[in-house]
Design brief:
Immunoglobulin-like, single chain, 259 residues, 10 strands, alpha+beta
Length: 259
């Protein structure tokens, strides 16, 4: 009898511990398509707690079938989550539609919900106006050329239209705020070329039709300096586009803005 009682107590304790472990979560990194890990599973579990953000009714990703992979189903559920809490996640960065990218603002709301439900009250909330700005930038830089300012016909010469701008290289590929960047390619006009940086846009000229020079100096960079541990990264990747009356180029090679 004592043995049976002991076994029952052990089962109850294990159930409590296991249940707390599987529901407790702290979202300390950005998540997007292709991300893997237990935090992805925790994200799916949290999303599945509400019918309007549930991943699926049946199969992979459904309640009790959560996975460690961030795919399109997870992205769609994250978008619904962001739109549900749009006033806290989207509106402060000027968006009305969810992106599916789990950045600082989205993570802050997720962590707030886990804290409110008693899952993890000891973890800090890493969100600030700067974090919201950087989330907006990361979202912008994650867009495909189809989302670019001049429309879907933006693949440069790969689309068969030779008059469009084409970027072949940038120099340097790494730098801090204030770096002078040279874009090399072809199809640039003597004036009225627009460089889309992912943060702003600049109108520039080209003396030879093959190079464009501009200064990349986003104002948030100085505010981020020295806060790498707070923001979970020490650089932000950017890809530039060049547009003019002939169309829009494909994305440039990556430029890493260092803090």
């Amino acid at each position: 009898m004592k043995r049976i009682i002991f076994q029952l107590i052990l089962i109850i304790v294990l159930a409590i511990v296991f249940g707390a472990t599987t529901t407790m979560a702290y979202f300390g990194r950005n998540l997007t398509i292709g991300s893997t890990g237990e935090d992805v599973r925790a994200l799916q579990i949290l999303l599945n707690q509400s019918t309007d953000t549930r991943l699926a009714a049946l199969g992979a990703g459904s309640p009790n079938n959560e996975t460690t992979y961030f795919g399109q189903i997870t992205r769609a559920a994250v978008k619904r989550f962001q739109e549900k809490y749009a006033s806290e996640i989207l509106s402060p960065i000027g968006l009305a539609v969810g992106t599916g990218f789990v950045g600082p603002a989205t993570r802050a709301k997720l962590n707030q919900l886990t804290t409110t439900s008693g899952q993890n009250s000891s973890q800090p909330q890493d969100i600030s106006d700067l974090g919201r700005v950087i989330e907006a930038i990361l979202i912008t830089n994650s867009k495909t050329p189809e989302d670019s300012p001049l429309g879907s016909d933006s693949q440069g010469e790969s689309s068969g239209v030779t008059g469009k701008p084409m970027i072949t290289a940038i120099s340097p590929t790494t730098g801090s705020a204030g770096t002078k960047v040279t874009i090399t390619g072809r199809g640039f006009l003597s004036s009225d070329n627009t460089v889309y940086t992912g943060y702003d846009k600049q109108t520039v000229s080209s003396s030879d039709g093959r190079t464009i020079k501009f200064t990349f100096n986003p104002p948030f960079a100085s505010a981020a300096s020295g806060k790498t541990s707070y923001l979970d990264f020490d650089s932000i990747p950017f890809r530039f586009y060049v547009g003019n009356v002939n169309g829009l180029s494909a994305a440039s090679p990556e430029f890493k803005l260092k803090f």
